[in-house]
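Can you please make up a protein's amino acid sequence together with its fold in token form to help me picture the idea?
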Amino acid sequence: MLPGHPNAKWFLAAAGVVLVVMAVGGVTVFQRQAKKAGPKKAEPPPQMLLASGTELSYTGTINAREILLVPAPVEGTMEIVEVEPGQEVFEGQLLGRIRNEGLDGVMTAAREQLEAAQSKVTNLDGALLAARLEVSRAMADAQRAGGEYDRARKVADRQQLLYREGATPRLTYEKAQKDSENARSEYEGLRELARRSEERLKTLTADLEAARKTLEEREKALEAAQNDLSAAEVHSPADGVLVASRVKAGDAVDAGMEDLFQISTNPLQLKVMIEPEPPVLEKLRAPAPVSVLVAELPLTPIEGELVEIKDGKVTVNFDAPDAVVKSGLTATVRVKIP
């Protein structure tokens, strides 16, 4: 259609509308196809370049190689921890104390029973001393009364003989008989008192012997309770450095804890574990030399050895040149692709 034709404008407008409709339809179709296809997956990263001689660096935490585990001797609550990780310890040194209410109760009961037994022995000792004095006095009184009775009896017998012969007055005879009877009664009374005193002395002696035996048993029971209670004290079995404590003061302690405390018996023998990528793990071999760097000795690379590759982890052993390099620090390990 020529530009000068009367319907040219209408024709151009209609063509524009058709183009718009086609564009909208195309966009709609593209969106539907995109929804069906789902999100586009990301392309995997390019393969690592692992040429022989390539050096790679990995970081890890330094740990001691030789660890001595100190188990919990009893269950309870950690009352006090005497040493913090990183501190030097010595054989026999107190590391911590566990409070066990059962042991505390046994100890208290044993001490109370011992005190009661000691008090009983002391009281019986005093009573026995008094009983011995009483027996001695009673026997002396009985002996004196016996002598008086013997003399009074002889006088009475003589007066009886004289009275029969009419050689003494009746009143004298009767008085002698009465004095003899009174002396006999006093003697028998004092003799019975002495006998009872002796019986009491025997009883007290037996009681004291039993009390002393009980005291000995209570002393042994207290000693056993003290030993059990002292077992709740955790001591270092060797010289070294404490590298870890399983609990802190106030925490519960299980009797099955095998690693209540961890002691490094040779603080300069250390190790560090790193986790290289799987492609790197496939290339590495043990043993192999490596370099270890720590921030505390930035200018001194430490010679180490790759000793184990297991479960995606690599273990590197090295000896610290200085005590400043210790467990808990971060190390950078440089490995070389063979």
